[in-house]
Amino acid sequence: MLLEIQKLTKSYRATDGTEAIAVLRDLDLQVDAGESVSIIGPSGSGKSTILNIIGALDRADSGSVKVDGREVEKLSEANLATYRNTSVGFIFQLHHLLPQCTVLENVLVPTLALKRDNAAARVRAEELLASVGLQHRLHHKPGQLSGGERQRAAVARALINEPKLLLADEPTGALDRDSAARLIDLLVELNTKHGITLLMVTHALDLSRRMKRVLELRDGQLVAV
After folding, report:
1. Considering the entire predicted model, what is its pTM?
2. Cβ-contact 129, 104 below 8 angstroms
3. What digits encode the pLDDT tens for the residues 122-181?
4. What's the CA dihedral at 81, 82, 85, 86 to 10 degrees?
């Protein structure tokens, strides 16, 4: 099992000083290596919070998250930085590409902290960009790309350090319908042909059903759909 979550709880303090709001309540989740899973639910239900906790961008109040046998909440700060950069890849609703850098340079950014062989990293980046259909855009800036192309570049960047788990947080939220469908096609291909484990959060039920398993976040817990 690649991902195992047990008894995860998370609350956020209300801005008006009232009682804290619980978004995750003793949540459990297991994802096998090579599986694709989507989580659906309304805005504000805590879907993104799950991904942020798995990706070590946020901390739970209690419970455990184990990825590839490692308990994330027990990692030191130095090991957490390595974990974020190598064990998980993150695709956000907004691509977060650096506007001053080329597409190729953006994909290479996560490799800088690892002191990898520059030539090997460049070859992998070019191969990834070709696999997402951007071999002709290597030296373009993000502002010269369509929204769908920017998200595909973000996918390549998320995969550059060969993560065990790809986390996609509303990856189609800022795209038109055709671009969204093409991006989901790409994610499905990465999962089925390359065995990349995928956990995607979305509010779009039709897109969620492209994954092998669909879960709904309901009252702080995940239930099968």
Report:
1. 0.92
2. yes
3. 999 999 999 999 999 999 999 999 999 999 999 999 999 999 999 999 999 888 888 899
4. -160
